[in-house]
UniProtKB/TrEMBL annotation:
This is Uncharacterized protein. It comes from the Bacteria. Residues 44-77 are annotated as: Disordered.
Length: 77
């Protein structure tokens, strides 16, 4: 079976899907975000929580001590 070349570019498809989602929620961004959050929770997949994030640098600009011991020498990067 010969397939016809796609006439819709990836960017056009992204814009089309965004319009469809916006239309479904009548442009209500809060409703879109709430729906996305409910679907993410229902998926059962782990969700990144920024409060669990460890700083890479101390507030005085120095590297965190535990990070320094894990980095290879700068010439190996």
């Amino acid at each position: 079976m010969i397939q016809k070349p796609k006439t819709e570019s990836v960017l056009d498809e992204i814009h089309r899907v965004r319009r469809e989602i916006s239309d479904r929620f009548h442009g209500d961004i809060a409703a879109i975000a709430a729906d996305a959050n409910m679907r993410a929770i229902a998926s059962g997949r782990p969700i990144w929580n920024p409060s669990d994030n460890k700083p890479m640098h101390l507030s005085d600009g120095e590297n965190a001590p535990e990070l320094d011991s894990q980095l290879p020498p700068s010439g190996d990067r």
